[in-house]
Design brief:
Layout lengths: L2 H13 L8 H16 L6 H6 L2 H15 L8 E8 L2 E5 L2 E4 L4 E4 L3 E4 L4 E6 L3 E5 L4 E6 L2 E13 L3 E3 L3 E5 L3 E7 L5 E7 L2 E5 L4 E4 L5 E3 L17 H26 L3 H16 L1 H6 L17 H11 L3 H19 L13 H13 L4 H24 L3 H11 L4 H11 L4 H12 L2
Parallel strand pairs: 9-10
Antiparallel strand pairs: 1-4, 1-6, 2-3, 2-5, 5-8, 6-7, 7-9, 8-9, 9-12, 10-11, 11-14, 12-13, 13-16, 14-15
Helix pairs in contact: 5-6, 5-9, 6-9, 8-9, 9-11, 10-11, 11-12, 11-13, 12-14, 13-14
């Protein structure tokens, strides 16, 4: 009998009009019946029956423990080291020489000897090459502490620490970091932006192509107010649009070289509209949600430059925008592009020379904008070599294609500056034998 049913019966009993009085025996029976109803045990749910088993409780507890703590033996694993020459590892107070691929552990100290180098890979967050006489420590599985020497490579989600500050990346970034004997850090990102935080918690965003020296008294530049500063998503979107506009503008010019005027017009209109669509990115929210759509037909390219300058202090981004805008002006007004023809068999080099010839007749200020675009093709080839399965074979292939001209040699020498030491040496030897 349920509680509601019992309650109803009791109410009916006490509310019934009767001349008979309730004696003590009847009261006792009512109390006993009520007590019996509330003393009945309800059946256990299936999960309660299962939980009664001691081995089920033990297995569940063990699963929780394993989910909270890493498996024994892997908690200090950090990555691996590939030595080239004399490379020592200090671990738990003991020193041993790394002669082949060696697993790295948190707490290791790496000492690179004279005329040696070491490739260090940390959990896909760092892939760098340490120079000779470098000293590196591994404080965490995604972090390197550069005591002295230099590191050259890619950082993606990890960090590089020095005595003067810490370097983090927004996305995969290519960079060179060197620390002098006095502790001064010299930071040079080659591709994509990096965050640099000094030990007094000043923070600055350093763009590719810029350089920063961190000394004891270095004051990082103040940041733009949050409500004005572009978000990382907006910056990436703007850079993508500048890249597309630059590529389509050069496509348009090359189509004219081959008398394909219809394609030339289509490519230029696409390039121009892509550049003007940057105004929509500037108008959007920080996560690129379009709050109010712009009428791009009313937006001119100079308007885009002015709006961008109001929202960012990044010289690298503004220089890129000015350069692409100038390129679009040149392509739009170029009447006789036949002198620009070049076909080396390597598109990156073709575009480099094409830009060189386009900007050569202009005043020095505008020629500098052309160099901004040429540097992008230099960086693109350097990245292609670094990412190749066999960088040395890639270098040999590239050198065999590029013409033995002044422009060709200048191009390769600029690429050489962006390569790690071993690849730089391989390219230098090939250039000496050309």
């Amino acid at each position: 009998m349920g509680f509601e049913k019992l309650q109803k019966r009791l109410q009916e009993f006490f509310m019934t009009e009767t001349e008979l009085s309730v004696n003590n025996a009847q009261k006792a029976r009512i109390r006993e019946r009520t007590f019996a109803e509330f003393s009945q045990k309800s059946p256990r749910a299936p999960w309660q029956q299962i939980w009664k088993s001691s081995w089920v409780r033990s297995a569940t507890f063990g699963a929780i423990i394993l989910s909270l703590f890493p498996l024994f033996g892997n908690e200090r694993s950090a990555g691996e080291l590939h030595p080239n020459g004399l490379v020592e590892i200090v671990r738990n107070g003991e020193v041993f020489i790394a002669t082949e691929k060696t697993p790295l552990r948190i707490g290791d100290q790496i000492l690179v000897g004279n005329n040696a180098s070491a490739e260090i890979q940390l959990r896909k967050s760092l892939n760098t090459v340490a120079s000779e006489r470098a000293e590196i420590r591994i404080p965490r599985g995604d972090s390197l502490f550069l005591v002295k020497g230099s590191l050259d490579g890619d950082i993606s989600g990890g960090s590089i620490q020095t005595n003067r500050g810490t370097i983090d990346s927004i996305q995969t970034a290519s960079l060179n970091v060197s620390v002098s004997e006095s502790g001064e850090a010299h930071i040079r990102p080659r591709q994509n932006d990096i965050w640099v935080t000094s030990w007094d918690q000043d923070k600055a965003l350093i763009s590719a192509g810029e350089e920063l020296r961190l000394q004891t008294d270095t004051q990082l530049p103040p940041e733009m107010p949050e409500d004005l500063r572009l978000s990382s998503s907006q910056i990436l979107a703007i850079r993508a649009k500048l890249l597309i506009a630059r590529t389509k503008a050069l496509n348009s010019l090359e189509a004219r070289l081959y008398q394909d005027n219809e394609r030339a017009l289509s490519e230029f209109e696409s390039a121009d509209r892509t550049f003007r669509s940057i105004a929509q990115v500037l108008k959007s929210s920080r996560n690129l949600q379009i709050l109010r759509r712009e009428n791009l037909d009313l937006i001119q390219r100079p308007d885009v430059i002015d709006r961008l300058a109001e929202r960012t202090e990044r010289e690298n981004l503004l220089e890129n925008a000015y350069a692409v805008d100038t390129l679009l002006d040149i392509v739009e007004t170029e009447r006789d592009p036949q002198f620009l023809t070049i076909d080396s068999g390597l598109l990156i080099f073709n575009r480099y020379v094409l830009l060189q010839r386009l900007f050569a007749p202009l005043p020095s200020e505008l020629r500098a904008r052309g160099w901004v675009l040429q540097e992008q093709y230099i960086a693109a080839l350097a990245q292609q070599i670094r990412n190749a399965p066999s960088p040395e074979e890639e270098i040999i292939s590239v050198v065999s294609i590029i013409p033995k001209s002044g422009a060709g040699r200048q191009f390769l020498q600029q690429v050489q500056l962006l390569l790690p030491d071993d690849q730089r040496g391989a390219l230098e030897r090939l250039l000496e034998n050309r």
